[in-house]
Amino acid sequence: MIKTLQKKFIYSAMAAVTVLLLVLISGINITNSWINIRQTDRHLAMLSDTETHILKQEKPEFPADRFFDKPSDKPERKNLFNPPIDKDTAMSLRFFVVHLGADNSILNTNVSRISSVTEDEASEYAHKALEKQKKTGYISNFKFKITDQDKTDGVFKIIVFLDASRQSDQISAVLALSAAAALVCWFFMLLPVILLSRKAIRPIARNIQRQKQFVTDAGHEIKTPLAVIQANIDAMELINGENKWSRNIRSQTVRLNGLMQNLLTLAKMDEENQNLQMTVFSFSELCDTALQPFYEPAALRQITIQARIQPDLFIQANQEYMQRLLSVLFDNAVKYADSKGTVTVTLQTSAGKILLHVENTCSRLPQDDAEKLFDRFYRADSARTQKNGGYGIGLSAAYAIVKAHKGTISAKYAGGNTVIFTVELYAKEVSS
């Protein structure tokens, strides 16, 4: 139990650390991407405005040294998220410009500010930009912006292409570095969490251990007075005969004894490093034997028991706990089956596993999910009350027994009035 709690603590703590790191990395990279994209848009706007200003001069010139002749506005205030654009920054940009005529024909191109693009390639980029039918967008590593002109000097459109690869590389670099830093931090956090986990769960583990010890001690202590009460009831009935009071005492004694047996089973199953004595035996024979005592109480309520038990099915398990598992499932089926209903027990093998199906009809199905039937002290409705002899812990004990044997147990509703319990255990081959 301590190891289980320790693992849950580690998983929970590291899940919280993971979420925190993911939020931090996402925030950093989203902000960095937003800053770079916004800066690229500002560069494009500046280049487009500068080119428009040049065309509106009396003697427009196209050479590169005239690109930044636009009168400067007021100095921009320095800001972490809004870095200013000065002439030096603008001169370091890699871009090219294409002028278009009325019919989108190429009038001229300027590739003097970039060495990797020729004039022919610049024209191809311009046609691709027009095909997108957008004022701005991306083509390869270039971001473009189309500006309409008022027929200035015969130019109807200006397309500025800005190389955005530097911004993309910066975004990728920040993403890689932040992810690496987060991964390193995650592993550095894992070590102290592991070291502190045992200390953190120690009070909880101590309380759980005390509860288990109390259940075990109380169970063993109650066994003796229960046996004495049972013996006295037998003696009273021999002398005075059976009456309704002796029957009530006997039934409640049997019920209390069953409760204590299941509590002890749960306490045993919850213990760490439990050493179950495993033997190979016929599960078919055990199932048939365990079912025999339930035929008579089922007949008193006109309940039909149908048994389809495949012979010679062997398992390696603790026979005592398997006997208790079968008793719990058969008792539950007969106890909660409706009068004149049916209990069906099917035992078969499939793909190296033994499948046990125990189903019973009932007058009304519980409203909650079928898997809640395995919760400790769970009662589905008023029908599952003490008058049926149940105490809401038998199926929990069955669940613990199956899990201790590395098997699975499940419950489901079918047909509107049927509850089906299914147990899967690993079959054991026995040579003849």
The amount of beta strand, in percent, is 15-25%
The helix tally amounts to 9
| Category from helices, strands and their pairing | alpha+beta
| Mean pLDDT reading | 82
Task: Let me know the largest β-sheet.
Answer: 5 strands, antiparallel
Low-pLDDT regions: 58-74, 382-386
Total DSSP E strands: 12
What helical percentage do the residues reach? 40-55%
Envelope shape: elongated
Compute the CA-based radius of gyration. 40 Å
H/E order of the elements? HHEEHEEEHHEHHEEHEEHEE
End-to-end gap: 40 Å
Strand order of the largest sheet: 2-1-5-4-3
Describe the protein's architecture and organization.
- The protein is α+β, with helices and mostly antiparallel strands.
- 51% of the residues lie in helices and 19% in strands.
- The protein has helices spanning 2-55, 87-91, 119-131, 165-240, 244-270, 283-291, 295-300, 319-336, 394-404; strands at 95-100, 106-110, 136-139, 142-152, 155-163, 279-282, 304-309, 314-317, 342-350, 353-361, 408-414, 418-426.
- Strands 2-1-5-4-3 form a 5-stranded antiparallel β-sheet, sandwiched between helices. The chain has a 5-stranded mixed β-sheet with strand order 7-9-10-12-11.
- α1 runs antiparallel to α4, α6 packs across α8 and α8 runs antiparallel to α9 (394-404).
- The longest helix is centred in the middle third of the chain and has 76 residues, at 165-240.
- It is elongated, with a radius of gyration of 40 Å.
